[in-house]
NADH oxidase
Amino acid sequence: MTQSYVIIGDGIAGSSAAETLREEAPDADVTVITDEGEALYNRILIKEFAKGKLPEAPISIHSDSWYEDRDIDLRLNTVVTNVDPDAHTLSTHEGEEIEYDKLLVATGGTPTQLPVENSDAEGIHHFWTFQDARAIREHAENSDTGVVVGAGLLGIDLAAICAAQGIDAHYLMRGECWWRYALSPDGAEIIHDALDERGVTPVFGSGVDRFETDDEGHVVSTVDPNGDTYDSDFVGIAIGLDFNAELLQNTEVECDDGIVVDEFMQTNDPDIFAAGDITQFHDVILGERTQNGAWGSAKEQGTIAAKNMVDSGSEEFRWVSSYSITHFDFPFLSFGHPTLGDDEAEMKYEDNTWRRITFKDGKIIGGVLVGDLSPQSAYKKLMREERVVSDQKDVLLEKRVDLEKVAPAQQ
Ligand SMILES: Cc1cc2nc3c(=O)[nH]c(=O)nc-3n(C[C@H](O)[C@H](O)[C@H](O)COP(=O)(O)OP(=O)(O)OC[C@H]3O[C@@H](n4cnc5c(N)ncnc54)[C@H](O)[C@@H]3O)c2cc1C
């Protein structure tokens, strides 16, 4: 009998799973369902579009014919509302019932709303989809003042969009520095200075108490908890994601701020898999359950999930993730899990060059490199090899990391 594989989500995780399924199971039925109105596009590049630096065309990755050519049934504008694991069916918002033998949930997340007064006013943006990017670009081009909230990897994209669009912006952060869970004030200072130079003023010990609007309901200013008011006809918020797992709420599939999977991307239901940002996965290098929001990791999880949907337990997810920022005239890269760990080492070199490595049980598990990315392959190699190296911080923090100088692994 022909196997039926159904994938919910046509982001990079769902789409790479579809591609792999077609390769691994040439005769199977493969269906991809997405609530978006367009097929896979490059989510990483939508910030460049919103800055006004890229046209639409290069952002699209798959045309509709990509699916037709591979005999993949793509359903656009279709929301999956419910999954019934016993019946092996799912339901769509239009009441259609679709059967599956194996199901992949690759539904990612939706930006979290700020729970303050007027947070749904006109002119306040969240950033996840191409549609969001179109609205941001149009509005940013016509805005003079702005506020950005959310001191992390997506918040800085919104800050960079303000800078590129010539908006006089304030970047309101709760703590004392940008991405305070991964960078120390020394490292973050490089980012703060670069933002300042581009017309985005970082404000620390701040946040949002409420937004103020005009008579038409359009945001005009942001009031922080200290009572300070910032003019803002444009507001961008990036304070995290709510994971799209509600379609499994009436099932026994284990969810915990995402969908829990093992290293094979399999849930506690043997016919249901998950991949991408939505997963709480067992990281075999870290040795614990964790979550990751990065393009490369989501792509690999999709591929691995598909292989295991066809041949259960055939390949585990073993991956060192990377995330780079290209908004400044110096490079920035975080890898692995820079916010976790029980030990760390960091060093500031000359201007705009800084690095930090995090360790768990003596092994590298992540880090952040600013200004000089040359040590990344050495650190990632040590991480993949799970070498105990935290006793050799001096060698690891040398400007040029020489793996020959790192003491051999203890047996
Ligand atoms: C602006 C921006 C910049 C980024 N920059 C970087 C970067 O520089 N480097 C990097 O590594 N990562 C970056 N990321 C993160 C990266 O894009 C994500 O980690 C990755 O796209 C996650 O892919 P995914 O397939 O797991 O989820 P998604 O891409 O979120 O795809 C999930 C899909 O499922 C759909 N869906 C959800 N629920 C349902 C439902 N019930 N029914 C049907 N469809 C549903 C969603 O609409 C969506 O299309 C960025 C993200 C954004 C938004």
The chain has a mean pLDDT of 97. Residues 295-310 form the longest helix (16 residues). The chain has three domains: 4-110+241-310, 116-237, 329-405. The two ends are 50 Å apart (CA to CA).
